[in-house]
Amino acid sequence: EADIYQTPRYLVIGTGKKITLECSQTMGHDKMYWYQQDPGMELHLIHYSYGVNSTEKGDLSSESTVSRIRTEHFPLTLESARPSHTSQYLCASTTTGRTYEQYFGPGTRLTVT
Amino acid sequence: QKEVEQDPGPLSVPEGAIVSLNCTYSNSAFQYFMWYRQYSRKGPELLMYTYSSGNKEDGRFTAQVDKSSKYISLFIRDSQPSDSATYLCAMTLSGGYQKVTFGTGTKLQVIP
Fold first, then answer.
1. H or E segment at B47?
2. For position B29, what pLDDT does the model report?
3. Neighboring chain A residues of B25 at a CB cutoff of 8 Å
4. Shortest Cα–Cα distance, A79 to chain B (Å)
5. What are the C-alpha distances in Å from B45 to residues A20, A39, B30, B62?
6. Is the pLDDT of residue A2 over 80?
7. Pick from B41, B88, B95: which is nearest to A100 by CB?
8. pLDDT of residue A40
9. d(Cα B47, Cα B112) in Å, to the nearest integer?
10. B109 and chain A: CB distance < 8 Å anywhere?
11. Which chain A residues are closer than 8 Å to B44 by Cβ?
12. Chain A nearest CA to B40, separation (Å)
């Protein structure tokens, strides 16, 4: 099993609250990703990182922000949650040159009421 | 039009059946073709990957890539109830490219 962890697994929160979804990996991977997954839809890349202090926005426009201060840690923050942010958020990591081999965390199911 | 098209299913088969899962794609520059398996309430896990065209076999699983038709397949022989999951095809331009394009996934149920 992959050594990549996400917390919380489930979160129900009210509109306007600030939330941080945590993602950590112990494999020493330099690349990390955040995806959004909705039922019947493909995974959409919302953020990725090549390494410490390197972050980029993905294909899907997102109001979230990320940071990469440590190799193993890649948290995602929503400053003001809205019902449209309700989704499954998946974190993944891989090593340079092996983008095809991504290791995924178990996901965070976020519901904004 | 989506870059990768995948029938969402659900696909229901009896135990022991041969399962065929397929994806089509539009970007001829894709070089790596992957199949991920996702169990309920879990993240996807890499099942197999193929570089360029051809077949690759791993136990009961066989992946095929036909670049001329822009069509990839995953075959599961002697399907088991434990194979019940959602199967996502995925593709990327190269090992060093930063992004992977995923299909929507096909939900498979193997009935005992």
1. strand B45-51
2. 94
3. none
4. 25
5. 24, 18, 20, 16
6. no
7. B95
8. 83
9. 22
10. no
11. 43, 90, 102, 104
12. 10
Q: B64 vs B13, B31, B73, B91, CA distance in Å?
A: 21, 13, 5, 13
Q: B26: distance to nearest CA of chain A, Å?
A: 15
Percent of chain B with pLDDT over 90: 87
Residue B12 has pLDDT above 80, yes or no: yes
Q: How confident is the model at residue A1 (pLDDT cuts 50, 70, 90)?
A: low
d(CA B99, CA A99): 7
- Between CA B76 and CA A20 the distance in angstroms is 39
Residue A42 · residue B2 · CB < 8 Å: yes
Type of residue at A76:
L
Residue B81 has phi, psi (to 5 degrees) of -55, -30
Token readout for B99 is: 């992004």
Question: Cβ–Cβ of B44/A42 closer than 8 Å?
Answer: no
- Give dist(CA A3, CA A95) in Å, integer: 13
Cβ–Cβ of B2/A106 closer than 8 Å? no
Q: Contacts from B13-17 at CB under 8 Å and sequence distance 24+?
A: B13/B79, B13/B108, B13/B109, B13/B110, B13/B111, B14/B110, B14/B111, B15/B79, B15/B80, B15/B81, B15/B110, B15/B111, B15/B112, B16/B78, B16/B79, B17/B79, B17/B110
DSSP A63: S
Q: Note whether A48 contacts B: Cβ–Cβ < 8 A.
A: yes
Q: What is the mean pLDDT of residues A14-25?
A: 97
